[in-house]
Design goal:
Elements: E1 2-3, H1 6-13, E2 22-29, H2 41-50, E3 60-63, E4 73-76, H3 82-85, E5 86-90, H4 97-108, E6 119-125, E7 132-139, H5 145-155, E8 156-157, H6 178-203, H7 219-233, E9 262-270, H8 271-281, H9 285-303, E10 312-319, E11 333-340, H10 347-367, H11 372-377, H12 382-396, E12 407-412, E13 420-421, E14 424-432, E15 441-448, E16 451-459, H13 467-489
Parallel strand pairs: 5-6, 10-12, 12-15
Antiparallel strand pairs: 1-4, 2-7, 2-14, 3-4, 6-7, 8-13, 9-16, 10-11, 13-14, 15-16
Helix pairs in contact: 1-12, 8-9, 8-13, 9-10, 9-13
């Protein structure tokens, strides 16, 4: 048995009748292997069954502790129904991208069954290009962006002729009874004060750097007081704590209570073009991604007369997984909060400002404890974690309350060489994430071969069609690409300027 961390458990606690806690990957594949075998549910079931010994997250079942006395456990009990988890369906003719996106939106709008291992795979036929789509859906309690990519790396091969595997016998664990779990809960309850004591010095001075709660009343005061106490107790020793930034998300349509339903758009941009912009202006690929997302949001909101006068704010997930933690699955993640200068009209100036913003955000992030999100949760008893998550969710959707962010933007590195599923070539790989109360849009990016592949997820009641947002993001890259060509033609590389900061830093 393996106990979930407080951060893993938070992704379970955040779920309600409107919010889902899973993440997905949409792969587009050829229809057949080189030998002519079709890509269907039978092939996928066979592949997963062969590699099940290397896929512990596909075997884990959730064991809840009675009364929520402690965090749940994963149990590898050997009960696994591959036919239930791998499903097959077909799109109506013509099976274009919008029809596929609508089907994906319906699938991700349904929660996973907690009585079974928390994953599903959908093999979707009838794709207009003649290919087959495969949607893999996994709960965030079991995987984050990096560990989810590790799962996909077990399923996918680097060549079209993978060696068949003979799965060894898996030693199943006995699923615990309610009485056994109650005993574990009581033991865990006794250890909770120690968790709080251990987490206090790490988490309390940095509570205003926890993006999910920093906007709540009283959090900043607690953090300031904790920093003062820490400096006092240090008796003159250098104990400067990182100071939280007073970033507030302006009100947009996305800062609202979400419905249970989603809309999805997916597409790609040229990775070589992104790198050319990066090289021309001396920034990073991630800076360019943020800049074109900012451009797309600026354009889309502006066309509707909804562009705020202030910068938008973005959550940016960051992996804190060490090399030693690879293959351990679960969540090893932190979140940066950064401003997107959407009020700036010039695309190059916008990129310059994002470069500076991200440099400062990364410096602050490096100074924070890697376990900050997990440690902050230890101040909430596990029995109250679900109630706290629901209360925070309600507050996040309330008008009149400062919001933590307008958008979630995540950039996950992917493979540069083609991959194969059971011998079938993968053409594209689009990430599909989720939205939250108060953050009704998510833009996730994954690189694959020579493309940056975008998955945009929005709440269905807030946006009637997310594809124009994707088009606006692509137009943002076109602007920067043209500017980079102008710079190249002038044979002069524009350095990153030190723009005057417009943002106040508070303690």
């Amino acid at each position: 048995m393996r106990q979930l961390t407080s951060l893993d458990a938070q992704f379970l606690a955040m779920e309600n009748d409107r919010v889902q806690g899973h993440v997905s990957v949409l792969g587009i594949y050829d229809s057949h292997t080189e030998s002519g075998r079709p890509l269907d549910a039978a092939l996928v079931r066979e592949l997963i069954s062969e590699r099940l010994h290397r896929l512990p997250t596909f075997r884990w079942r959730l064991a809840e502790v009675p009364f929520g006395l402690d965090y749940p456990y994963w149990v590898d009990d050997g009960t696994f129904d591959v036919e239930y988890h791998v499903r097959e369906l077909a799109l109506p003719t013509p099976g274009d991208d919008r029809q596929l996106a609508e089907q994906v939106a319906r699938i991700i709008g349904r929660q996973l069954d907690r009585a079974r291992p928390l994953w599903e795979v959908y093999v979707i036929h009838g794709v207009e290009s003649g290919g087959v789509a495969v949607l893999t859906k996994m709960h965030h309690a079991a995987v984050d962006g990096i560990s989810g990519a590790e799962v996909m790396s077990i399923l996918l091969d680097e060549g079209p002729a993978p060696e068949p595997e003979h799965a060894p016998k898996i030693d199943a664990e006995s699923f615990p009874s309610e009485v056994q779990m109650l005993g574990r809960g009581v033991i865990g309850l006794l250890g909770q004060p120690l968790r709080i004591l251990r987490a206090g010095p790490t988490a309390l001075p940095h509570l205003d750097d926890v993006p999910t709660i920093r906007h709540l009343p009283g959090v900043k005061a607690i953090a300031r007081g904790s920093r003062l106490v820490k400096r006092t107790l240090s008796s003159g020793v250098n104990a400067t704590a990182v100071r939280g930034r007073d970033v507030t998300a302006p009100r947009t349509r996305f800062q609202a209570r979400v419905s249970p339903h989603r809309r999805v758009a997916f597409g790609y941009v040229s990775l070589p073009e992104v790198k050319a912009v990066k090289n021309s202006f001396g920034c990073t690929v991630n800076d360019v991604v943020l800049a074109i997302c900012a451009s797309g949001l600026r354009s889309w909101l502006g066309e509707r007369g909804e562009l705020p006068a202030e910068s938008l704010a973005s959550f940016i997930p960051m992996s804190v997984r060490t090399p030693e933690q690879r293959g351990t699955f679960g969540n090893r993640v932190s979140v940066m909060l950064a401003q997107l200068p959407t009020e700036v009209a010039d695309p190059v100036e916008r990129l310059h400002l994002i470069n500076q913003e991200m440099s400062g955000a990364k410096e602050r992030h490096r100074a924070l404890p890697a376990s900050l999100l997990q440690d902050a949760n230890h101040f909430i008893p596990p029995a109250l974690l679900g109630q706290a998550a629901r209360a925070t969710s309600r507050l996040a959707g309330m008008r009149g309350l400062n919001q933590p962010a307008n958008v979630m933007i995540s950039n996950v590195p992917g493979p540069s060489a083609p991959l194969y599923l059971g011998g079938v070539r993968q053409r594209a790989q689009f990430p599909v994430s989720g939205v939250l109360d108060g953050i009704g849009i998510n833009i996730t990016v994954m690189s694959y071969q020579d493309s940056l592949e975008f998955g945009i997820v929005v709440d269905r009641e807030l946006v009637d069609d997310p594809f124009p947002i994707l088009d606006a993001v692509r137009a943002g890259l076109d602007e920067l690409r043209d500017a980079a060509k102008t710079v190249a033609a002038a044979n002069a590389v524009t350095p990153i300027r030190r723009a005057t900061t417009r943002r106040k830093v508070t303690s």
